[in-house]
Amino acid sequence: MKNVVTIGGGMGSFMLLSGLKKYPINLSAIVSMADDGGSTGVLRDELGVLPPGDIRQCLVALSDSSEILRTLMNYRFEKGGLKGHNFGNLFLSALEKITGSFSKGIAEAEKILNVKGEVIPVTENDANLYIELKNGKKLKGENEINHNFEIEKIGIKKIYLNPKAKAKANKKALEKIRKADLIIIGPGNHYCSVLPNFLVSGIAEAIRKSKAKVVYNCNLVNKKGHTEKFTLDDYVNSMNKNIGSARIDYVTFNIGEPDAKLVKKYENKKELLIKWNKKNKKNKKYKKYKIIEADLLSQQKVKFDKADKISKTRSYIRHDSEKLAKTLMKII
Question: pTM surpassing 0.90?
Answer without folding.
Answer: yes
